Amino acid sequence: MNDGVSIYDLWSPRLLSIMRMVTGFLFMEHGTQKLLGLPPSAQPMPPHLPPLLMVAGILEAFGGLLILGGLLTRPVAFILAGEMAVAYFMVHARHSFWPLVNRGESAALYCFIFLFLAAAGGGAWSIDRLWRRV
User: Which of 13, 68, 78, 117 could form a disulfide with 124 if both were Cys (CB 3.0 to 4.6 A apart)?
Assistant: First the structure.
């Protein structure tokens, strides 16, 4: 770039925002599936969710929405990383050491993406960023 800004410096915060938005949208689906049955699943949730699944659904739906918009990104991402770590060890790890075998690769990946967002923030296109400008 002519003004001394590299293409990496220019696009890194923007791509961070895109990754955050996609992650938030995909994560939110897990919560809406638990709470509302949307999108429909081959294995639908029971009509009365156990308390732990209810809490997970609320965290996933509303936490995913906050991550999607980039609102309170760091604290919400930290909480969601913890939720995914708990989910991994409570549900998946007891079946096998290997995430591919125990079907926990999504939980592990979400955990580390959320840890990254907790450290990096929401990026250039986030509500957090807009609030800092005001």
Answer: 13
